[in-house]
Design a protein that fits this description.
Elements (H helix, E strand, L loop, with lengths): L1 E3 L15 E3 L3 E3 L5 E3 L52 E2 L2 E2 L22 H14 L5 H13 L16 H15 L4 H5 L1 E4 L2 E4 L11 H13 L6 E5 L5 H9 L4 E6 L2 H13 L6 E5 L15 E6 L6 H4 L4 H4 L4 H4 L7 H9 L4 E10 L5 H11 L2 E7 L9 E6 L1
Parallel strand pairs: 9-10, 9-12, 10-11, 12-13
Antiparallel strand pairs: 1-2, 3-4, 5-6, 7-8, 13-15, 14-15
Helix pairs in contact: 1-2, 2-3, 5-6, 11-12
């Protein structure tokens, strides 16, 4: 059955042209895009639905409709609202404006279903899944725990609690932005890496589990060395690599470089957070051109890097939360994506000790190309390729000075 949009209890909407929508075949989500074949939708069985309101759509979680048409003038006159704001308009009519509070039903005194922590997580998980987010449940938990300022595990001990309006307002805002593919880590300002928490901002690449393979190999090499290992981290970004290595190798010292002053500021704060700032020197540099006072006597024991390695052609294939929000300079050098590997292959030898090594993270399918780049340099020999047990791709390559 097709319904004309209306709000019959207090007002009638008179669209500029006929607008119809089927609650069985079409849905408009909370950002105005049309979706086909929404989940099951039964307004008669939904106790939160107000009388006198024609439903346009249903992004539905646990049987609760979360969409309707409401003229802005009737906000104070009662009605039903979901926990999240609508940002779409049809012929000038706003869909569900100002969801800062629950509204009473338009008629009757039936009980309302409160927005408990459990219900918010269920709804948000479905909402994120509809918008194509990775790990929708985890994302919902991280955002709600951040709004509540509590550890994520505590959500499950407070499942029936109803957050106050301040919490809901913050949560709604981050949910809206997450559905627009702003990375969750940027919304909450941190990312866990190697069991440590790192501050992240839009100035830095978000730390990823794949990079833990590089860090694990570096820690093993440092622990097996004598004396005080010295490490150079090229393109440090958030500092997650060098900070984690030094946090796990108390004898080691490091130099961290980056072309971005903003990234170096974030890295310094992360070094301070994890109490290794006194063992790291931060240098703004675009390549391996370091002043003599930065290089330790005899050279570095180890050079580590997660360089930008996405090719220009592959940038378009990245998911929008990466491509549109993370710093392009940290993702790709342009061209074939191998430019920084060429810089390292040609310049690392002069900075390494006689038995020093290089550990670099590589992209999926780049092993042979990177090996060829280093083979062309002649002074560094491929001495290992590594991946995590759960990773189908080689992620880290080691080259040793000869």
């Amino acid at each position: 059955m097709l319904h004309q949009l209306s709000y019959a209890h207090h007002h009638a909407i008179t669209p500029a042209g006929p607008i119809t929508a089927s609650t069985e075949t079409n849905a408009v989500d909370s950002f105005g895009s049309v979706r086909a074949n929404p989940p099951e939708f039964n307004s008669k069985s939904d106790p939160t639905l107000p009388r006198g309101v024609t439903i346009l759509c249903g992004i539905v979680g646990q049987g609760h409709a979360v969409g309707r048409v409401l003229p802005a003038a009737t906000e104070e006159e009662g009605g039903w609202n979901p926990p999240y704001p609508w940002h779409a308009t049809i012929n000038g009519h706003t869909l569900c404006p100002d969801l800062g509070r629950r509204y009473k039903r338009g008629m009757g005194d039936e009980p309302q279903t409160p927005w408990t922590i459990g219900r918010l997580l269920t709804w948000t998980t479905g909402h994120f899944d509809n918008h194509g987010l990775d790990e929708p449940r985890l994302s919902a938990e991280i955002l709600l725990a951040h709004a509540l300022r509590c550890p994520r595990i505590q959500l499950y001990t407070r499942f029936d609690n109803v957050p106050d309006e301040t919490v809901l307002a913050q949560f709604r805002d981050t949910v809206r932005r997450a559905a627009q593919h702003v990375p969750i880590a940027y919304l909450v300002g941190f990312r866990e890496f190697f069991s440590l928490e790192f501050e992240v901002t839009a100035d830095v690449l978000i730390p990823r589990p794949e990079t833990e393979t590089l860090v694990d190999r570096a820690i093993g090499r440092c622990r097996g060395s004598q004396g005080t290992p010295s490490i150079l981290d090229l393109g440090t970004g958030s500092g997650c690599i060098i900070v984690t290595i030094l946090a796990n190798c108390t004898r080691a010292t490091g130099v961290a470089t980056d072309i971005s002053a903003g990234a170096l500021d974030v890295a310094r704060r992360n070094a301070g957070r994890h109490e290794v700032a006194d063992r790291i020197r931060f240098v703004e540099a675009a390549d391996l051109s370091l002043s003599p006072d930065v290089v330790p006597q005899g050279g570095f024991d180890l050079i580590v890097s997660n360089p930008p390695y996405v090719s220009e052609a592959d940038m378009a294939t990245l998911p929008p939360n990466v491509r549109d929000h993370e710093p392009t300079i940290a993702l790709t050098p342009g061209g074939d994506g191998l430019a920084l590997f060429r810089v390292i292959a040609s310049g690392a030898t002069s900075l390494l000790k006689a038995d020093g090594a290089v550990l670099v993270e590589i992209g999926a399918g780049q092993r042979d190309d990177v090996a060829a780049v280093f083979a062309g340099g002649g002074a560094l020999v491929h001495s290992g390729t590594f991946r995590a047990p759960s990773d189908p791709h080689d992620r880290v390559m080691q080259f040793t000075k000869v």
